[in-house]
Each structure stands twice: as structure tokens, then as C-alpha cells.
What does this fold into?
Amino acid sequence: MLTAPKELLNESACDHHTNKKTACNRPTPGATTGGCAFEGAQISLFPYAEAAHIVHGPITCLGASWETRATPTSFSGRDLTQVGLTTAISENDVIFGGEKRLSASIDEAMHTFNPKAIFIYSTCVTALIGDDIDAICREKAQQYGLPIVPVHAPGFIGSKNFGSRLAGEAVLEHLIGTLEPESTAPYEINLIGEYNVTGDMWRYLPVLEKIGIKVRATLSGDGRIDAIRTAHRAGLNVIVCAQSLVTLTRKMQERYGIPWVSVSFYGQRDTSEAIRTIVRAFGDAALIDRAEAVITEEEAKLSKQLEPIRTRLAGKKAVLNTGGNKAWSFASALQDIGLKVVATAVGKSTEADRAKAREYLGEEGVLMTKPAVEQPKVIADTQADILLAGGRSLYTALKKKIAFVDVNQEKKVSYGGYDGLVAFGEDVIAALDNPVFKVANREAPWRH
Ligand code: SF4
It folds into this structure.
């Protein structure tokens, strides 16, 4: 039976690895209600648009995460993330095994789409019946001469975050280091955990390029299979908003000697800090000077654009309910556009993220560990004007008659980099000006 590798459950590169109580992603009863491991793995790898993604399990598993995030691609061929592929195993396969069906599905995907690689995701049922997907992937990879990657993250193994970690393992074992690049540039980075949701990455890449930093590969926003295969030749791994992939970066450091840094590209201060962190890691004085010049130029331009936004938002109070390092990175972006952040949710954040959230919010800021329960009370107590959260919290905003902006992966607008902060400010103003939040929960006229 498949067991979770112990080391992945207690990552040595995480700050809390010596603290048993907060060790990473141990399977806990009910953990999959926030997204199962398979879902996390598929979300992590799905943005590779030129690869086929076959879910080996009942058809319902595919629906758990397919197309839940807007992760655009500039790939000019057929975007296979728009095609849901599954072996859709039946009761018959559970009794007699689903391997033949998986084999046939790979053949069909090859002949229909001619992908650059194929990811095969195991799910609860196919892991439990013991289908040997490794053997099938090996055989088919030889037959077709392209990477066919088994992803062992069945739902029961743990949380969504743990699934991301397992997806990182699959990429490390089967893709990274399997191809040599034709050429390399002096300052090349890999973006790890950047999913390019709503095109966030495209906001800040031009700024990095201006400084002279090139992206060799991304895991996995707008990703290319050949690029990730050559990722071992980059000079630096940059973790963007996904601590769950720290294992991958730690192992790449051990295996290929690539150092890593962790940054956020939300908000003015954090975008500037992210650029500084990257150039300092390369340690080239000329590169650092170039970066400072570009930061000065971009911040001056941004300040002008933000002036009316800051004036309009001065004195407004915000409650933030999102996950991971967004607990502080979005708080910083909100402060950059002039709001006071009175509370943020840290239930899904690491110890380091919590400390940073405290630093940004100050001593009087509320760090919510159970936001579903605490949120309405915090809004009432602090007299907050706006709630920024995932779609599920919209109802709370309507009930409390305060404005709402979706900042989770279902968001529709890109808020990354300097330009994204202006778009963020405009969306916050639009929400505050939107009368629907006051009207929607008004008492029915006949009840007056
Ligand atoms: S992998 Fe398991 S937990 Fe996840 S959607 Fe499928 S059956 Fe549900």
C-alpha cells in the first residue's frame, strides 16, 4: 500500500520542522474537505498546457479540480488544460484492475493530441486497487519517446498542500535534469509555485527582464515541458507564494547546487523586496545597481498612479481572509494602497507567515486562526469597510453589508507586480462604491 514518505511530512527546510505539533501536512481526518492531495497535485501541474493530464480514477475525481483556476498560457498550440482527460474507471475495473484502461487511455491521448508529455494522476480508488501506474508509464514512455510522469497523490494520502509537494517530487524525479539547454544566460531563475493565476506573472516579468533576469522555467504557470526539463541549469530558484514546494527547491539545491529564495510579488514594498532578494542572491554589483535604478523608476511611476487611489481609500478598514503567505502579502498590498488591515486569516499559514503577518498588522491586528467562525465578529467589532477573501466568504460580506473583493485563486483580475497594485486599488474602490452590498441584505419592504 502507498504510504506518504516521512520526510515529505516534516520538511527540514520549513521553519517548524523540529516542532512536532506543527509538522507539515500530516493527514488528519477531514483534511480533504479543504481539497484532497490529488486536487493539490493536479492544480500544481495543470498549467502545463502542452502536456496531457490523465486522471486515473472515477470520472468524479476529474471534476474536483479541473478548470478551477484561471491559469492562462501563451502556448500557441492546443491548450490541453481545456481538455479534461480521465480513464473514468468503472466497477468492472475495480474488480479486474484498471491498468488496461490506463494503457488504452495513454494511446488515445497520444493519437488525439500528440502532447509534449503526459501526467498520470493516481486517485483513491486506483491506488487502493493497486494499479501499477509506474510500470505502465515506463513502458509507454519508451514506446512513445516522451516523458510520461506518474503522480502518486491519491486523495486519502493527505491535504491539498501535501499533494502539491508530491507533484513537486514527480517533476523532480521524472522531468528536471532530463534535457540539456542549447544555451544559458548569466542570471537565470526558475519560478517555483507561480501558477500565473489570471496572468499575475506577466505583470512582473517585464520588470525582471528590464533588469536582465531571465526565467528559465516555471512550475508551472505558463510552463513548458522542455524548459522544466532544463531547470537544473538555472542559477536560482525563486519560490513564489507556495511554501509546499520548498521540498523541491531544497532537493534541487542538494542535487544541482541551486540556491533558493522565497518572495511575494503582491504590493509595492514586496515587489521591490522580491527584486532585491533575487539580485542579492546573484551577488553581482552591476546587477544590483541596475535593479535599484529600475525599482526607483517603477516606484516613481506607481506613486503617481496610486495617489488618487490612496486618497480615496484613506481611513478605510479591511479584513483579509485568504491562505498561506497571502495572509501577509495581500495585507502589505492593501496597506500600500492606503487601507488599514485590521485582521487577517492565518489558519493555513506557516509559522514564518504568521510572524510576518503580525509584523505587517502590528500588535492590535487580529490574526484569525478559525476565520469561518471569527470573521463575522471581527467585522462587527472593528467596523471594517471591506472583506477580501475567497468566493465562499461573499455571503458573510452580504450579511454584514460590507464590500467584498475575491482575492483567492478564483479571482478574475491579475494583482501581481507594480501594475497589478493599481488594478487591485481600482477593484477595491469599485467594490466600496458598489451599492449591491448595502442593498442585497436590506429588509423586504413588506416587513417595515
Ligand atoms: S482522489 Fe479521492 S478524495 Fe480526491 S476527489 Fe478522488 S476520490 Fe475524492
